[in-house]
């Protein structure tokens, strides 16, 4: 699946919740996620190499955790992510397979996530990532075949702007958290 993702550091969480409530919507209950991020041993930024992510997700404490494997390839020149996901039954065995394939773990990310489905292809996430002092808004939209990437990116930027956001970030949560002490990554102004 091809997706486009934009993120923004949320500075006014109370105002955001008031906006969502004001339009008659409601964020999901908190979802806890823990991810381990793996890259090939020869990984370098900008080479469009894949990342593998194992995720543990708990949506309801009365139900067992769900384990999944995500293969992500970020295409630098377009900003598109190719993502393939599958549920796994044996988390430890999956980690072993990833290592056997020549991937190495570079990060672990824990977050509390709430989500809101905006339409049949667009999801808004409110993420509180461990190690980051402020929550982030993340919008993920499926890219339809033949759809111009820049048009979809413009639509996602408009959603952020409607929600009172003025900037966006391009870095992954793993990169942001690696800075430590709640450091903030490079932020870019939303285009007018």
Describe this protein's structure.
The structure is a single chain. The protein is 21% helix and 43% strand. The chain has 192 residues and is α+β, with helices and mostly antiparallel strands. The strands form two sheets. An eight-stranded antiparallel β-barrel has the order 1-5-4-3-2-6-7-8. A two-stranded antiparallel ribbon has the order 9-10. The longest helix is centred in the C-terminal third of the chain and has 14 residues.
What is the compact description of this entry?
This protein is of the alpha+beta class and 192 residues long. The protein has helices at residues 13-22, 91-100, 149-162, 173-178; strands at 2-9, 31-40, 50-58, 66-75, 80-88, 103-117, 122-129, 136-142, 167-169, 187-189.
Order of helices and strands: EHEEEEHEEEHEHE
Rg from C-alpha positions? 17 Å
Q: How would you write the strand order of the largest sheet?
A: 1-5-4-3-2-6-7-8
How much of the residues is beta strand, in percent?
35-45%
